[in-house]
Amino acid sequence: MRVLGYAERLLWTCGLLCVGYCLVLGVQAKETQRLAERIGEPLPARIVPDVAPAAGDVIGRIEIPALALSAPITADYDKDSLHRGVGHIPGTAVPGGLGTVGLAGHRDSFFRPLRRVAAKMEVRLIDKSGTYHYVVDSTEIVSPDKVGVLNIASRPELTLITCFPFDYVGAAPERFIVHAHLLSASPDGVSAIH
């Protein structure tokens, strides 16, 4: 009986720790989402120093209205950053920039709605300079080692990457890729940050 009592207390403790961990992740995600929603808002005119963002910093927001997807974009795609939002892949272009913008996210959190993405859907990237509009061209499924999906194309593009299949349990064997092109290099709703 004594062993069962210890086992019961151990299981309760493990369960409470798991619930606590999930609550902490949920609070972090909500805070990151709140920060991302404020990006692009007009701010009072003042000089703000340009400082390179750290790995977990929120640098923008991605929206796909047709999928009700809205997620923060963090400055990197390491484990902690992907718990807080969608990660910008270092070495790829910034929103609205020349080249290919690469964003990665988890299939079971922020990028879960991508399973319903279709050609011609609008994708918005919002950062401190304004809102950039992209249109989905195609999707593909590739092996994890196919990094050519981030190659620079003849026009500015956006590449979204998540694991595939969406319902796979564990480390998924493939990657789901969304390709989109930039409609205009000029953002709309430019904020007052310079």
UniProtKB/TrEMBL annotation:
Gene Ontology molecular functions: hydrolase activity
SUPFAM superfamilies: Sortase (SSF63817)
Record flagged with keyword Hydrolase: yes
Signal peptide: none
Top-level taxon of origin: Bacteria
InterPro entries found in the cross-reference section: Sortase, Sortase_D_1, Sortase_dom-sf
Keyword Ribosomal protein: no
Main enzyme class: hydrolase
CDD domains: Sortase_D_1 (cd05828)
EC number: 3.4.22.70
Keywords, sorted A to Z: Hydrolase
Protein name: Sortase A
Phylogenetic classification of the source organism: Bacteria, Pseudomonadati, Acidobacteriota, Terriglobia, Terriglobales
